[in-house]
Write a structure and sequence with these properties.
The protein is of the alpha/beta class. It is built from twelve helices and ten strands. The longest helix has 20 residues.
């Protein structure tokens, strides 16, 4: 205890009195002193050894924690904040729509933080997107897997779907229709893997496709919940969390993904379900999605 206190004080040379408190917990109740007695004895020893210390029970600068267990006694002078939340696997699973952007990896991390194991679905638009773009997504999946006990990435060839939408449908509805198709694929993957929800990185009003009207049009395409952990986040809040979990620098690599290469110049702001359904009637979308699903590739990313 004295050595830890000396190290702590050495890192923070005192300019006056330093307040401290000793807190003791005993998992081993057979230990021959009460927690209060142990704290008082250790506190007196520290006061005698370090004149700069001053005891304070409420909000001390130095908190010495003593944890007495059957197998050992642990002493610490600080805590490292963990992510919190629930252990992954304590909730039912879901499918994360994982792009190469900043938002979706953070959304996935937040879902895992609440105990949800994830499968990741990525929609590849090669040759409109590069192999570097796909590598970026794989690197993001590796980071998420290291946090959440591993992650399986499902890569779906999406180029034919996007080309069909671009050729046959109103350009204003392109992004909304892309998202509806992605959600249908994710729903099928969720049912196949035992998942009960889709997780996305959308934030209310952040871009044209994320107005409440457009989100309602997108959600109408599936019959399972769509969870949006970032729905109320400002962009800077998402960036800050991305830096914290280790995904920001990967997401910032300058390689576009399928959500950006087919962006319309004048997207619809307040879409209507009826119009989206009319536009989809111009497409053999069931056949397109069947081909998309059959062409998927999988890659597993183990836990750290």
């Amino acid at each position: 205890v004295r050595a830890l206190a000396e190290e702590w004080l050495g890192e923070r040379p005192p300019r006056g009195k330093v307040t401290f408190k000793v807190e003791t917990r005993r998992a081993d109740k057979s230990y021959p002193s009460t927690s209060a007695e142990i704290s008082a004895r250790l506190g007196a020893s520290l006061l005698a050894a370090f004149p700069a210390l001053e005891a304070r029970m409420k909000d001390p600068e130095l908190r010495v924690e003593v944890d007495i267990r059957c197998e050992a006694i642990f002493v610490s002078t600080g805590r490292i904040q963990g992510p919190g939340g629930l252990p992954v696997g304590t909730q039912a699973g879901g499918v994360l729509l994982l792009s190469g952007g900043i938002d979706s990896p953070v959304a996935g991390w937040l879902a895992m933080k609440r105990g949800m194991p994830l499968q990741a679905a990525h929609f590849d638009s090669y040759p409109y997107t590069s192999r570097e773009s796909l590598q970026k997504v794989e690197d993001l999946a590796a980071v998420l897997g290291s946090w959440g006990g591993g992650l399986r990435l499902h890569v779906f060839p999406f180029t034919a779907v996007q080309e069909a939408v671009k050729e046959s449908c109103s350009h204003r509805y392109h992004t909304v229709l892309f998202r509806r198709m992605m959600h249908r694929v994710a729903r099928r993957l969720a049912l196949e893997t035992g998942g009960l929800a889709i997780v996305t990185g959308e934030s209310l009003g952040q871009v044209a496709s994320q107005t409440l009207e457009n989100l309602a049009v997108i959600d109408q395409a599936v019959d399972i919940p769509v969870l949006r952990p970032l729905v109320t986040f400002d962009k800077q809040e998402t960036v800050n969390l991305a830096r914290r979990i280790g995904t920001f620098d990967i997401s910032a690599r300058p390689f576009p993904d399928c959500c950006t290469v087919f962006t319309p110049s004048r997207p619809v702001i307040r879409g209507k379900i009826e119009t989206a359904l009319e536009e989809e009637e111009k497409l053999p979308w069931k056949e397109l999605l069947e081909e998309c699903f059959r062409g998927r590739e999988e890659k597993d990313f183990p836990p750290a």
